[in-house]
Here is the input.
Amino acid sequence: MEKVLKPRTAEARKRRVSTLLRRLNKDYPNVECALHHTSAWELLVATILSAQCTDVRVNMVTPGLFAKLPMIEDMANVPQDVLEQEIRSTGFYRNKAKSLIGAARIIMVRHGGRVPDNMDDLLQLPGVARKTANVVLGTWFGKATGVVVDTHVQRISRRLDFTQQKDPKKIEQDLMTLLPRKRWILYSHQIIHHGRQVCVARKPRCLQCSLEDLCYAKDKAV
Here is the structure.
C-alpha cells in the first residue's frame, strides 16, 4: 500500500474529514448503540457495566438483571451481595454493584425516579464519567453534548490522525473541534462498529477498509 500524504491546507483537511464521514455513512447507515436497552435507566446500567467488559457480555447479563430488578427503586433497594452475583461475570462486580445501587438511590431521591438528562447531574452519579454520560445523553436523549471516546474511538481516531492525544478527555476535545456537532453522536457509533468489523485492533483488515486511502496508520496490513 502506498503511503497516504497528509493534506497541507485547512480546506484540504476539511474535505478529507467530509469524505471520511460520507464513507462511514455509506458503510454504517443505520448503526445504533451496541448495548441493548429499552429506557434511559437500562442504558445507564448497561454502560456502567460495560467498563472493562465487552458489550456482548453485558448484553448477556442485562436481560436477566432487568427481569429481576425492572425498576430503579428495585435497584436502589437490592442487597449489594445479591446484585454482585447477578453482574459477577462483567468483572469488577463489587465496585459496579456499589455504583449501580448508589446511582439508583440518588436518582430516586434527587430526580424523582427519572434519569437526569444533563451532563452535570449525570456526573454526580456513582460510576458515571463523561463517556457514560455522553452515551446516555446522545443515544437516549439525542443530545450532542460531547463525543463518546471508548477504546475503538481512541485507537481509530489516532490512526486517522484526527487526534494525537492519548487521554480520552483531550481526544474528545479534538474530535469536538474537528467534527460537525451533528455528527458527534453518530461518529462514535460508526467508529465502534468499524473497529469491531474492519479495523480490528490485533489485525486491521485494511484491504477491506473503505477508509484505507485516507488513513495515515503506519502499520497497515497488506
In short: Residues 202 and 221 are 10 Å apart (CA to CA). The mean pLDDT is 95. DSSP finds eleven helices and no strands in the chain.
